[in-house]
Amino acid sequence: MEVDFTKLDQRDRYRLLCSFVAPRPIALVTTLDKDGTSNAAPMSFFNVFSQDPPLVILGIQVKPDGAPKDTITNIRRSREFVVNMCDMAIAQQMVDCGINFPQSVDELEVTGLSLAPSRQIQPGWVAEAPCAMECRVAQILEYPRRSIVLGEVVQMHVRDECLDENGRYVRPDKYQPIARLHADNYIVSDDQFELLPTAALQSARTA
């Protein structure tokens, strides 16, 4: 099957892209509104793209009526946000944070999540998250119905048990993030395996 994306309806483009580019990690993004109320929103158009500088990228679409979402409104104003990674322990709260609450509602409060103070920025981070990254905006690319936010990570909070005794490597038995597949389907990374280059090919390359 061949699919011409230049002629395809945007809903079908979304369906195909999200079904095949998967699993996608989920960012539960926390921000502050102009009155100091916390906002939390899950996003699966998210990933890390660089370590030098340390950059993460968010893709934030407008609401169905074309209005900007609270998250991007807050980010444009404050230039700060936190990416909170999600595991099974907070999976339901993450999904519930995606409900279209009124702007004045604190999603963390209504879902039972706790907010911890950040070190370098104003928005707090989710205390129950296995990992959280404080970010400052490096750049925002604007499209008619989507904003692409490049954020520079300035601080990371990590649950102690997620790292080995040297604090360098993730323990796969303790850090098992969830990711989105398609529609309302998710996956957890609880069946991990190690895969190395073929020894003979590696030897031939370095010979």
Automatic annotation (TrEMBL):
Keyword hit for Lyase: no
UniProt source species: Roseovarius indicus
SUPFAM superfamilies, A to Z: FMN-binding split barrel
UniProt KW keywords: Flavoprotein, FMN
Cofactor: FMN
Pfam families: Flavin_Reduct (PF01613)
Occurrences of domain Flavin reductase like (ranges): 20-171
GO MF terms held by the record: FMN binding; oxidoreductase activity, acting on the CH-NH group of donors, NAD or NADP as acceptor
Recorded coiled-coil stretches: none
PANTHER family: FLAVIN REDUCTASE LIKE DOMAIN-CONTAINING PROTEIN (PTHR33798:SF5), FLAVOPROTEIN OXYGENASE (PTHR33798)
Family of the protein in this entry: Belongs to the flavoredoxin family.
Record protein name field: Flavin reductase
